[in-house]
Every structure is written in structure tokens, then in C-alpha cells.
Structure to design on (250 residues):
């Protein structure tokens, strides 16, 4: 693939990049900015594209760095100090009885293959993600959408690994409960 | 944590397993717990489904 071909392909992935950036940043302007930065960096660096991965994968890699930069800048803002409020493990006590058993035991979700191919499922997931506390959602997205590892997230947000696992635990407990309630326990979902 | 752990402790460890490998002792406690606990086995599977769902959501 010549440099020229790569340069032509780059803008065709714009919509996808914007979608990923929106998932993580939840702000139109911030998402537009990181995508523009990504496209510019990619066009400047098109000659360096090795062709070992797809153009899309390569662009996603660049976007990831730009998003991490944006988050790092945001982590210095006062709003982010509230992160500490989202690290309290005691909040989860209500999910278990005094002897440590589940109050509402997780159900068998069966084989979710057909669920994961349906738009309605992802509408419910979007709804559940939006119910998460904002910093919890941000950290969970860094882990599961950006696929950053725990050490990277701790470093970028200057949080401890204990804080990190509490936040991820919170996110997973809330999401599984929400998905179970609004999707998997709904008998009409397959209809 | 005693030799047998509660669902509350197990669920925390199961979540941590999504992000890092646990020391062998803790991993053993979780595996043992999962053998006998349907609820936590469901939880374990649900976290794998959640991960897969997030990746598809991105696409």
C-alpha cells in the first residue's frame, strides 16, 4: 500500500474514531478535538504506517494516545477530585447479606450470542452505562473500550491499584445488575 | 479469608481476575468457591459477557 493510498483511507475512518472518542469522553467538542488531532497525526505519519495492521487498527492506536492525553489533562481539573468519593468499598455491603451471600444471586444469562447481535441490547447497555457515576464510567471505559491495563490507568489518573479495582468492581456490579434487570430478565426480549 | 470464602469476597476476586493474575493461593480459593457456587459462577460468566459486549459496542 503506498503512502498515498493510506492518506486516502484515513478520513474514511473518521466516523468510527468519533464514536470511540465519544464513548470515552462523552463530550462532543472534546471528542472532535481528539479525532482531529488523530487525523492530523496520521496524515503526517502516513509514511510510517507499516502495513502490518489495518489502517483502522493503526488509527485506533493513535486515537488511544490522544484520548489518554485528554484524560490526563482533565485529571488535573477539580471535578476529578470527586474520584475519591467513588472508591468507597462499603457501598457494596447492601448487595450481600451479613454472611456474605448475594442478596440477589446473579442469574444464568445463557448463551448471549443472539443478544450481542441485537441493537436493542446495546441500547440497554448504553442506558446502563449512563447510570454509572461519571468517573466510574470513565475508568471502566479506559479498561474495557480503550483496553488500557491497570498500571497504565493508575499512572494516568494517579490513583492507587486498590482504588482502581474498587472502581472497576463498582462498574461491573452495577452494569451486570442493570443488564440483568433491564435485559436478561425480560422475557419479551427474544420476541 | 478462611479456606472457604464468602460470595462477597469471591466476587471481588473474580472482578480482579479480569485485570490481573491473582496469586496461586487466591486463585485456588476462587476456583474452589466456583465449584460449589452457582451464583458466583454466573457472575464470573457475566463479566466475560460484559467484556465481550463492550468490545462489540466499540465496533
Amino acid at each position: 500500500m503506498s503512502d498515498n493510498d493510506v492518506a486516502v483511507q484515513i478520513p474514511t475512518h473518521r466516523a468510527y474514531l468519533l464514536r470511540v472518542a465519544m464513548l470515552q469522553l462523552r463530550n462532543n467538542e472534546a471528542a472532535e478535538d481528539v479525532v482531529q488531532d488523530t487525523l492530523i497525526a496520521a496524515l503526517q505519519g502516513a509514511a510510517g504506517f507499516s502495513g502490518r495492521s489495518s489502517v483502522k487498527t493503526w488509527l485506533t492506536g493513535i486515537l488511544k494516545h490522544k484520548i489518554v492525553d485528554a484524560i490526563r489533562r482533565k485529571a488535573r481539573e477539580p471535578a476529578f477530585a470527586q474520584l475519591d468519593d467513588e472508591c468507597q468499598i462499603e457501598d457494596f455491603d447492601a448487595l450481600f447479606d451479613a454472611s456474605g451471600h448475594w442478596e440477589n444471586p446473579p442469574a444464568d444469562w445463557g448463551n448471549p450470542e443472539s443478544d450481542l447481535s441485537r441493537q436493542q441490547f446495546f441500547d440497554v447497555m448504553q442506558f446502563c452505562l449512563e447510570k454509572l457515576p461519571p468517573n466510574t464510567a470513565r475508568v471502566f471505559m479506559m479498561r474495557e473500550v480503550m483496553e488500557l491495563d491497570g498500571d497504565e490507568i493508575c499512572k494516568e489518573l494517579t490513583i492507587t491499584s486498590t482504588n482502581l479495582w474498587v472502581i472497576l468492581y463498582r462498574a461491573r456490579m452495577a452494569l451486570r445488575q442493570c443488564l440483568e434487570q433491564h435485559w436478561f430478565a425480560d422475557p419479551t426480549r427474544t420476541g | 479469608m478462611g479456606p472457604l470464602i464468602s460470595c462477597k469476597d469471591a466476587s471481588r476476586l473474580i472482578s480482579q481476575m479480569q485485570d490481573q493474575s491473582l496469586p496461586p493461593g487466591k486463585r485456588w480459593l476462587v476456583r474452589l468457591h466456583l465449584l460449589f457456587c452457582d451464583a458466583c459462577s454466573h457472575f464470573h460468566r457475566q463479566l466475560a459477557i460484559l467484556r465481550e459486549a463492550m468490545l462489540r459496542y466499540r465496533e
In short: The mean pLDDT of chain B is 92. Chain B touches chain A at residues 6-9, 11-12, 15-16, 18-20, 38-40, 42-43, 45-47, 49-58 (CB under 8 Å).
